[in-house]
């Protein structure tokens, strides 16, 4: 049973990093798509949402083809930096980031679109720079929506299995996440371990979803 | 009226499902290493027994055992090692008298085809040049168990286990090596032969126990009688010829 904590800690680490990366990427992309007016905006939005609807094994295969030792990006990394991404915790983080990315950027885009441009315009008449407007006006008004998206992304990254198994494999302590550990425990007939891991995962996911529910925009605390 | 198309669709679906369940199906659960051989043997069996459709189910032997133990409707179980079949016997899923060994195999170490690091002995794998080694998960994959027993016998398991990339079946280990994502892997000689152009066999590894594949019909299966016929068929010349073609040895 004590070994069961290793996948839990590793999964939290992978999901944590994936969510942090998505905070930056998702917010930036969400803002660009909310405010930007350029041709092909909707096509780009749809393309960036693909990881949400694509089967994880398909995504895993694409990743393998790109970052694998014989892949476009992977071969370059191996040749110039000696970096092999497959079967590393970094690959697990990359897979988790990509599958959870649409959850963040879509929530961020929706949150930014609810921010009334008049507030930003008012700030501009007062003479503050664009970056300051973003951090002091726009973001404070949009943060709840973004946070809800981030919590869902965290839960998604926590449960990522198909793509992770393909590019990160199963190495105890390095890439064997909770979902992979459950899969292997069931395969090996270790039902006790499987039960324990499943309960732990369920409790964590439930907590995350409850947290996200409280942050949906519009839920104002009782005055 | 939206209800009418839904009812028509429901009617078609139920009709389709009932048709699928009526054919005389034989479900064969076989170890992953038998994939190619059994795919060739199935049509031969169907030709000899018209009206029977063979459904093949491949996975690591341990996984197949779990499926059967939890009630999966299989009629035949072909395992890659005696341990898994012993467990099946202990759980009364097969009858000892009906269990027979039908092929043998050997364990090899393979490296990616383009690799310049080729071990001359198993002990070479402890060198830093071999950072990742694909080994089947010993808890559920026979090839992993054979590998672990060899390495433990040579007192190398402690040094090699940290480098192990777990594979859920022998074909996954083969895939890792042919993609050059690992530096070496332990598979059966029959699997290595399938990808002779993408992997190189570095060594053949003698195992403490010979690698013998047992097969048995499953009395609890839906088509148990046909299951027994399939097991007998495996010992006939046409089936044995197919197995030899893929490199399996006589039991």
UniProtKB/TrEMBL annotation, chain A:
Record's bilayer topology term: Multi-pass membrane protein
A Pfam family assignment: BPD_transp_1
GO cellular component: plasma membrane
Molecular-function GO term, any one: molybdate ion transmembrane transporter activity
Keywords: Cell inner membrane, Cell membrane, Membrane, Molybdenum, Transmembrane, Transmembrane helix, Transport
Subcellular location: Cell inner membrane; Cell membrane
PROSITE patterns the UniProt entry points to: ABC_TM1 (PS50928)
ABC transmembrane type-1 domain ranges (all copies): 8-212
InterPro entries to which the protein is assigned, alphabetical: MetI-like (IPR000515), MetI-like_sf (IPR035906), ModB_ABC (IPR011867)
Keyword NAD attached: no
Annotated TM spans: 12-34, 85-105, 133-154, 195-216
Origin: domain of life: Bacteria
Similarity-based family: Belongs to the binding-protein-dependent transport system permease family. CysTW subfamily.
Described purpose of this protein according to its UniProt entry: Part of the binding-protein-dependent transport system for molybdenum; probably responsible for the translocation of the substrate across the membrane.
UniProt-recorded name of the protein: Molybdenum transport system permease
Protein's organism: Hydrogenophaga intermedia
């Amino acid at each position: 049973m004590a070994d069961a904590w290793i996948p839990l800690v590793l999964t939290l680490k992978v999901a944590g990093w994936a969510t942090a990366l998505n905070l930056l990427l998702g917010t930036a992309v969400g803002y660009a798509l909310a405010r930007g007016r350029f041709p092909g905006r909707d096509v780009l939005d749809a393309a960036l949402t693909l990881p949400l609807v694509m089967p994880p094994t398909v995504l895993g295969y694409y990743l393998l083809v790109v970052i694998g030792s014989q892949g476009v990006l992977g071969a370059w990394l191996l040749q110039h930096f000696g970096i092999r991404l497959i079967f590393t915790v970094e690959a697990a983080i990359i897979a988790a980031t990509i599958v959870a990315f649409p959850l963040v950027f879509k929530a961020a885009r929706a949150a930014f679109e609810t921010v009334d441009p008049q507030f930003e315009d008012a700030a501009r008449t007062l003479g503050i720079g664009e970056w300051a407007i973003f951090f002091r006006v726009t973001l404070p008004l949009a943060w709840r929506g973004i946070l809800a998206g981030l919590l869902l992304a965290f839960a998604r990254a926590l449960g990522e299995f198909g793509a992770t198994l393909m590019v990160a494999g199963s190495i105890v302590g390095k890439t064997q996440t909770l979902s992979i550990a459950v899969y292997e425990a069931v395969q090996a007939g270790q039902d006790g371990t499987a039960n324990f891991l499943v309960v732990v995962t369920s409790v964590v996911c439930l907590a995350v979803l409850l947290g996200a529910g409280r942050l949906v925009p519009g839920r104002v605390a009782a005055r | 009226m939206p209800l009418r198309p839904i009812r028509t669709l429901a009617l078609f679906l139920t009709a389709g499902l009932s048709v699928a369940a009526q054919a005389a199906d034989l479900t064969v659960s076989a170890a992953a290493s038998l994939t190619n051989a059994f795919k060739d043997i199935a049509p031969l069996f169907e030709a000899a027994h018209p009206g029977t459709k063979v459904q093949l189910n491949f996975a690591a032997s341990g996984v197949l055992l779990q499926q059967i133990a939890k009630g999966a409707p299989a009629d035949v179980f072909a395992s890659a090692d005696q341990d898994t079949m012993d467990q099946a016997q202990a759980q009364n899923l097969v009858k000892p008298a009906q269990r027979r060994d039908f092929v043998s195999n050997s364990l090899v170490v393979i490296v990616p085809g383009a690799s310049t690091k080729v071990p001359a002995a198993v002990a070479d794998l402890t060198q830093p040049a071999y950072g990742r080694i694909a080994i089947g998960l010993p808890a559920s994959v026979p090839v992993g168990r054979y590998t672990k027993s060899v390495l433990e016998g040579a007192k190398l398991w402690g040094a090699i286990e940290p480098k192990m990339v777990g594979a859920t079946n022998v074909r996954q280990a083969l895939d890792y090596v042919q993609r050059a994502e690992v530096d070496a892997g332990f598979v059966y000689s029959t699997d290595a032969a399938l990808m002779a152009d993408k992997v190189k066999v570095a060594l053949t590894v003698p195992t403490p126990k010979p690698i013998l594949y047992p097969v048995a019909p499953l009395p609890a299966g839906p088509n148990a009688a046909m299951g027994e016929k399939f097991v007998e068929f495996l010992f006939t010349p046409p089936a044995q010829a197919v197995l030899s073609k893929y490199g399996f040895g006589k039991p």
